[in-house]
Structure of Metal-dependent carboxypeptidase:
Amino acid sequence: MTAFNDLMAYQRQTSALGQIAGRLGWDQETVMPRGAAPQRAEEMAAIEAVLHARRSDPRVAEWLESAYATSEADKAQLREIRREYDRAVKVPSDLATAIARLTSEAQGKWAQARANEDVAAFLPVLEEVVALKREEGSALAQGGDIYDAMVEDYEPHTAGAQIAEIFDQMRPRLVALRAAVLDRPEPAALTGSFDELTQMRLTQKLAVAFGYDLNNGRVDKAVHPFSSGSGLDVRITTRTSETDPFNCFYSTIHEVGHAAYEQGIDPAYLLTPLGRGVSMGVHESQSRIYENQLGRSRAFTGWLFDQMKEAFGDFGIADADAFYATVNRVHNGYIRTEADEVQYNLHIMLRFDLERALMAGDLQVGDLEAAWNDRFAADFGYAVDKPSNGCLQDVHWSVGLFGYFPTYSLGNVYAGCLNQALQKAVPELDTQLAKGDTSDATGWLRENVQQFGGLYAPREIIKRASGVEPGPEPLLVYLEQKFGGLYEL
């Protein structure tokens, strides 16, 4: 067992350093002074150089050769370490360092370009990011498909063609449902002014209601909401808008889903490869089921309606039924993170096709804005009005997260499967949610998904939890039933 123990001790140190790098990223998006960006880029590059050297250290290969496992968890630890090592040794250290430095710089330039509605200011650095990521993808793919190599970072054992097949199954029914819904009278939108400090107080209450442990976390504000960290330090961010408190509340519930996954992992896996979410698709299954199937349910929105009346007074919505319709209102819009459940996946399909073309070299960065705008008009039926509502709205490409976007829709697919099983497992769910009590629902998810961390492969953990082979049918049935009822189709 000496080789195994030595390997795990080394791995825990590497994981601890990775957590420090993640904390630097959290700081950059929340409280770092803007003028610190050039120095932070050097700091990120320096720590990435150390991490890459550790991940590709020849001793890891030697330990893997000698180590043997005596339990299912130990076998999974070796499997994940080997997977990470095999990928790390394919990427030159100077390339990994250059990507870390550049994406740190690019993130700040993206935020500034987005604020100024200036695509031209962002495209040069994005072109550099795409070039370096294609180089990394080529190194990882070793003659195979570059985009598949990118997806492997976020959804192991899943290829672009598999994702495209799932999306092809989903698109016709989503488009038909959207057309039917948009042909019906639209529920009232939320209007008025909502104090942003009051929003943040209520959002803390929502975080706790969904099981977020603030002893090991915190809620801050960022341009683009995200969750960061694992184990004993898991932080989330949200954002506020004076005219749209739903943005704040549902961003928070979404990010709490991510954070709860990390906080719910078996403590025995702390700072090991199993001590983090197994994939971004499974991660998104947690954030999306928290946000949508639980947070936007008729039962929970009834409780939220009362909370908002208490916080803001009369805000123009007559009753809980009208509030439920407003929360789930299907309407034209540009922003992915604000999209309703019917249209959300169509936003992801757009990004999936564009980034896949970028990685294949079929789309040039200079043509990205026009390609985005053309595709958006074709898919949604109206024109993008400004870059922050178009190709500048998401942070992902600026930080090099190519292959990440499709995991959002995979997460919706997985959430559909989990929700089907959850409804059977917790028959009193609606009664509990109507009181703001999510404990049985989140407890079921913790027991059946979250505690395992990286122990099982992504599709395996969803199948074990839901009892079905992961596929889009449960999600599509859920959407058709929910919105068919809401819009009397």
Summary: The longest strand covers residues 233-238. The longest helix spans residues 2-30.
